[in-house]
Amino acid sequence: MMDKLAMNKPSMGKNSTQHKQAFDEPLWWGLFSAGGVCFAVFLPAVILFIAVLLPLGLLPAEALSYERASTLLFSVPGFLFVGAVVCLPLFHAAHRLRHGMFDISVGNDALNKKLMYGGAALLSIVALGLVVAGMLG
Amino acid sequence: MDKLSTQRLPPLKRNWWLKHRFFKLYMLREATVLPLVFFTLCLLAGMVALLQGADSWQGWIVFMGSPIVLLLNLLALAASLFHAATFFVLFPRVMPIRIAGHSLPDQAIVAGQWAGVVAVALLFFWLFGRA
Amino acid sequence: MNTEQINAKNVSTKHISVKRYMPDSSAEPYWQQYELPVDDSTSLLDALNHIKEQLDSTLSYRWSCRMAICGSCGVMVNGIPKLGCKTFLRDYEGEIRIEPLSHFPVQRDLVVDMAIFLEHLAAVKPYLIDDNPVKPYDPQAPETYQQSPEQLARYKQFANCINCGLCYSACPQFGLNPEFLGPAALTLAHRYNLDSRDHGKKQRMAELNRHEGVWSCTFVGFCSKVCPKHVDPAAAVNQGKVEAAKHTLIALFKG
Ligand code: SF4
Ligand code: FES
């Protein structure tokens, strides 16, 4: 039985596997993994300081004043910050949402893929564009 | 091959993950990206506000302080920590680090990653925390 | 351990519900309860054998080695894939529900059709693909090809698989899409890719780097939880993703 299968499979598999190569998946997975690291390592502190302590008024007044926030964000380190805290985590989220939708049988994967990764790419460009606009303006 | 071997089952129903605790935790792990997306959109709004000027920036901070937004972002904070806890243990299994033929113990790699989280938090404290 | 503990057999009576399916007599599966005496050393396979011999000879199930090595006695116990011979009834309080392995077509009672599993195993060429010169054809060839303990250690864990298929019953991605090569096949591919004597990685990569190869895996990780041999198939599959990514990069630069 095994022999018969082993004989059958490669011959019919050869052509079909070659054009079924998923050359895009390594890219999505790489972005997902990098985003996962950023989500885990950077986001706890980022969320704590920017989304919790800042609005609660628990940071010193000038810590994120308009002037200081602008200088920090609209700079090369700010650009990198946005890459690590916005763009990569967005691709991480896109990947998990795409697979999550497959898990609960929502939509079809080919379309979900375009929507999710497309959305992440679009928002990433907007985010990085905002930093560049701030640096120029 | 007999005809039975070509038999195929219908795929799982969409509620398969409700049947076992392990799968529920898996779905929770996957769902950590939902509050993450919310926080990211908030952050994007903040960047737009910063670009518009001092008044919008103040307005954004007020918006971030509204109870629902604050609550969702606290959820995002919890999600990021849960994600970290689940993600860090996967790392040594996906990329086992071998030094001189011996693999580094998993706990060391996990601890190293948590040290990274703490280091980033300290960096933020150094940047924003001091009066 | 003192003699008293060894002698303490704790004989009791337990109820086992088995999901029966006999296509010749009824189109629908149904549950049947059995009551049998068990002690501390009664495995689930012992219990099934007891049912077959003493209570109901119509029950069908697979087994052979009764020592967790042939991989044929897999069933679902309270919804979790287990080897019958490695599962002890002393560990179960209350009801014990036995079903055929999930995600495989049922042929009869606890017997499932594993053809697709075997197809997936065969697809990754799970054997040494070796283009080293050998003695009969090349006098210059060495007597033997040696492997150091370090080289063995790289793949040893992944070579412990007994092809029981429990991980396929644990894997929702296989349940959602049976074309997914699945944990054991991808692990076996990785095992041969890591073998210093093998030269077949390129051929296997073509199978692995497909949507139905490593990329269908979302690291649910339940496969590794249920594996009776601690193979950690989830780790192997995800190491396979790293390899597939490298393979893609190389293919990209070579054009
Ligand atoms: S990897 Fe483990 S669970 Fe899967 S077939 Fe092999 S021994 Fe069984
Ligand atoms: S009877 Fe062989 S593994 Fe259980």
From TrEMBL, chain A:
Transmembrane region(s): 27-54, 74-94, 115-136
GO CC annotations on file: membrane
Gene3D superfamilies, A to Z: Fumarate reductase/succinate dehydrogenase, transmembrane subunit (1.20.1300.10)
Molecular-function GO term, any one: succinate dehydrogenase (quinone) activity
Keyword Secreted: no
Alphabetical keyword list: Cell membrane, Membrane, Oxidoreductase, Transmembrane, Transmembrane helix
Keyword Isomerase: no
InterPro entries assigned to the protein according to its UniProt record, in alphabetical order: Fumarate_red_D, SQR/QFR_C/D
Gene Ontology terms: biological process: fumarate metabolic process
Name of the featured protein: Fumarate reductase subunit FrdD
Phylogenetic lineage: Bacteria, Pseudomonadati, Pseudomonadota, Gammaproteobacteria, Oceanospirillales
Gene: frdD
TrEMBL record, chain B:
GO CC term (a single one): membrane
Keywords recorded for this protein, A-Z: Cell membrane, Membrane, Transmembrane, Transmembrane helix
Keyword Transmembrane annotated: yes
Transmembrane segments: 69-91, 111-129
SUPFAM superfamilies cross-referenced by the UniProt entry: Fumarate reductase respiratory complex transmembrane subunits
Matches recorded under InterPro entries: Fumarate_red_C (IPR003510), SQR/QFR_C/D (IPR034804)
A Pfam family recorded for this sequence: Fumarate_red_C
Signal sequence range: none
Name assigned to this protein: Fumarate reductase subunit C
UniProt organism field: Vreelandella glaciei
TrEMBL record, chain C:
Keywords for this protein: 2Fe-2S, 3Fe-4S, 4Fe-4S, Iron, Iron-sulfur, Metal-binding, Tricarboxylic acid cycle
GO molecular function: 2 iron, 2 sulfur cluster binding; 3 iron, 4 sulfur cluster binding; 4 iron, 4 sulfur cluster binding; electron transfer activity; metal ion binding; succinate dehydrogenase (quinone) activity
Metabolic or biological pathway, per its Swiss-Prot or TrEMBL entry: Carbohydrate metabolism; tricarboxylic acid cycle; fumarate from succinate (bacterial route): step 1/1
Record PROSITE patterns: 2FE2S_FER_1, 2FE2S_FER_2, 4FE4S_FER_1, 4FE4S_FER_2
EC number: 1.3.5.1
Domain called 2Fe-2S ferredoxin-type: residue spans: 16-104
Source organism superkingdom: Bacteria
CDD domains referenced in this protein's UniProt entry, alphabetically: fer2 (cd00207)
EC class of the enzyme, as a word: oxidoreductase
Reactions catalysed according to its record: a menaquinone + succinate = a menaquinol + fumarate
Co-factor note (free text): Binds 1 [4Fe-4S] cluster. Binds 1 [2Fe-2S] cluster.
Domain 4Fe-4S ferredoxin-type, first and last residues per copy: 151-181
Cofactor dependence: [4Fe-4S] cluster; [2Fe-2S] cluster; [3Fe-4S] cluster
Biological processes per GO annotation: respiratory electron transport chain; tricarboxylic acid cycle
Pfam family, one: Fer4_8
NCBIfam families reported in the protein's UniProt record: dhsB, PRK05950.1, PRK12385.1
UniProt record similarity statement: Belongs to the succinate dehydrogenase/fumarate reductase iron-sulfur protein family.
PANTHER family assigned to the protein according to its UniProt record, in alphabetical order: SUCCINATE DEHYDROGENASE [UBIQUINONE] IRON-SULFUR SUBUNIT, MITOCHONDRIAL, SUCCINATE DEHYDROGENASE IRON-SULFUR PROTEIN
Name recorded for this polypeptide: Fumarate reductase iron-sulfur subunit
